[in-house]
Amino acid sequence: MKSKWWVITGVMLMVLLLGACGKAAGPDTSASGESEKSSSSAATNTTNDKGEVKVVQTEMGEITIPKSPKRVVGLSVVYPELLYSLGIVPVAVQNYHEDFPKYLQEPFKNTMKMGIAKTPNFEAILEANPDLIIAPAWWSKKDYDQLSSIAPTVLLPEREEWPEELQDIAAVFGKETEAKQVLEDLKQHEKEGADKLHSLIGDETVLYARVMEKEIVLNGPNLSRGAFVHKRLGLKPVSNFPKDETGLSISMEVLPEYDADHLIIQLDDEENPEIQKKYKDMMSTSIWKNLKAVKNNHVYLVGGKEWFNLGMAPMSDNYAIDDLVAAFEEKNK
């Protein structure tokens, strides 16, 4: 019995040892295969950045995003323009007007319009199949969980001036050099525009008014739009514009108090029939007809779409410089 027990015990030990060896051999082979696969992936990532990622700092902390995203969604009405100025065409954007401004119509011809709302169109964003979503935190923080469930979402801080926003976005994409060039080019363009405008009208005064559906807003030198016209392009404001005000909401009856030599009129939405009617009604009044700028044919009508981001994005600013110079040249030869 004792010898039989030892035989059985020996057989069981051999089975256990063989099983253990078999299991040990399995992971070795698998690990070897996986190791080869990992090496192959690393080599592919080195030569082809599809699948490569990087970590960026955002308002929600560090997140991992594609190193070279191909399908970017830009939220807010300014970020799409900032992206394009860096050479990035977004696949979907929020838009205030039905059509893109002239300077974006061709490059954005295949870009999805999602409209503008407090809550983004998640269905449209999902349909756009983005690999990265980028937005300002003040606009999209409340929607972060839903957005990040669609694609990695970069929320950036609120800034006082758009050049800082541009630099924030450039840092995400590694396009700091391009951002610097955008700013340098715009500065040079502004100087050329300012010199040309001064040669046309010198120190004559200019008033910049925005006709909206329910009000007329005068943009002063302390507002981004007004600062662009009066500080960056050097057009002299009327002397009695309140120094501490950014803008004034006025009625038609008050307009003669700011009777400038030249009047820039921006229709908030030139396709809105209510705004069109408001402007036509303004022009039919004796108040309008007696304005100095109207009498001298020094009224310059500019578009709502093209000037919508004025003072808030580089392409809009560049467009406005050319638009103003052409308009002033036409009436001040």
UniProtKB/TrEMBL annotation:
Residues 26-52 are annotated as: Disordered. Residues 1-20 form the signal peptide. GO terms for biological process: iron coordination entity transport. CDD domains: FhuD (cd01146). This is Iron complex transport system substrate-binding protein. The lineage of its organism: Bacteria, Bacillati, Bacillota, Bacilli, Bacillales. It is found in: Cell envelope. Residues 71-332 form the Fe/B12 periplasmic-binding domain. It comes from Paenibacillus polysaccharolyticus.
